[in-house]
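Colleagues,

For the teaching module next term, I've prepared a clean inverse folding example: a structure given as tokens, and then the sequence designed for it. I'd like students to try predicting residues themselves before seeing the answer, so please don't circulate the second half yet.
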């Protein structure tokens, strides 16, 4: 009797162990649908140029880092909660447009006529729809009007008074021109005008603000931009700027030009640029990065680095881009001394950088 019980006991043990092994094998062969977290991410820039640590006070560096971290946090929360990449781009750029630290919105540079003319664009990688505004003077957050152009009109770009008339149909915040007046930007303009007068230069505004020796040693392209990938796999990109110090004649750079300063395609990547806009327009930089990925089957890093470090540099242009691909990979190449930049991934890991490393 005892031997029978012992035999049954061991048979039961064998059966349990066998079932356990089969359970493990089946679970390994058939992954559960929710075994991995959705991929999403966000990258931002606040301008590229001659940004050297030796010219940066600890207080100023801390201010830039804090504002970039604040912007990344806003975008991350939207994406983490399942929000769209378009919402993340727009709301994150609001933080940067509302800060006097960057050449966009509140911190926009002055034109030769001592006004502020703002440009912005946004693009939806899912539909390839895009919207842009150029030369607006009374709109607090141009990126939001760019999105309205994309979603509420049949057009891609509107400029000047027309863009503002269009914006008045919607809940857009308008401000008086004095809102954009900051002492730092005003002093930059006066210094540029003085240099121009002393050299007898009539068209020096064609020279770009941000090269070494211009304005001051830590001068920069302060254009802001955001690229995002949401949990549904949709990419979006947006860019906003005040343009170029001392610009004349209604000059418009690359920021509102789709394919030059901004581009997004779910099949490849989302890109936002900052730098000497004329070169970015001539090279269609943002679209070129996407096209290299699509037609040459290269990685995001390879495409972005080649366009910035080879093509842009060979032509004499300076600046950089931030980009994110459909798999959440991020690239942030630039050929200047520094670029205000940062990213956050779906794990919440946040990185902020300023100088060239």
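(Answer key — instructors only)
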């Amino acid at each position: 009797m005892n031997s029978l019980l012992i035999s049954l006991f061991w048979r039961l043990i064998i059966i349990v162990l066998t079932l356990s092994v089969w359970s493990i094998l089946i679970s390994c062969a058939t992954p559960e649908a929710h075994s991995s977290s959705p991929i999403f991410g966000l990258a931002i820039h606040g301008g590229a140029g001659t940004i050297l640590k030796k010219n940066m006070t600890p207080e100023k560096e801390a201010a830039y880092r804090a504002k970039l971290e604040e912007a990344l946090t806003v975008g991350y929360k939207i994406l983490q909660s399942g929000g769209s990449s378009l919402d993340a781009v727009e709301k994150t750029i609001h933080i940067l447009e509302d800060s006097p630290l960057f050449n966009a919105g509140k911190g926009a540079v002055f034109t030769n006529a001592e006004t502020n003319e703002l440009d912005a664009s946004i693009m939806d990688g899912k539909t390839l729809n895009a919207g842009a505004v150029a030369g607006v003077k009374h709109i607090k957050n141009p990126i939001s009007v760019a999105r309205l152009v994309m979603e509420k009109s049949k057009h891609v770009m509107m400029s000047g008074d027309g863009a503002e008339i269009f914006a008045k149909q919607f809940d857009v915040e308008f401000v008086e021109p004095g809102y954009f007046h900051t002492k730092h930007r005003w002093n930059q303009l006066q210094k540029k005008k003085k240099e121009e007068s002393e050299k007898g230069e009539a068209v020096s505004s064609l020279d770009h603000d941000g090269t070494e020796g211009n304005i001051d040693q830590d001068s920069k392209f302060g254009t802001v931009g955001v690229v995002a990938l949401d949990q549904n796999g949709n990419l979006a990109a947006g860019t906003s700027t005040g343009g170029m110090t001392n610009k004349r004649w209604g000059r418009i750079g690359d920021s509102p030009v789709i394919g030059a300063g901004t581009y997004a395609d779910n099949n490849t990547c989302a890109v936002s640029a900052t730098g000497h806009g004329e070169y970015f327009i001539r090279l269609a930089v943002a679209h070129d990065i996407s096209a290299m990925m699509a037609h040459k089957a290269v990685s995001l890093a390879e495409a972005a680095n080649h366009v910035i470090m080879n093509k842009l540099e060979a032509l004499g242009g300076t600046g950089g881009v931030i980009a994110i691909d459909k798999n959440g990979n991020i690239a942030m190449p630039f050929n200047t001394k520094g670029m205000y930049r940062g990213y956050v991934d779906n794990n919440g890991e946040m990185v902020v950088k300023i100088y060239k490393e």
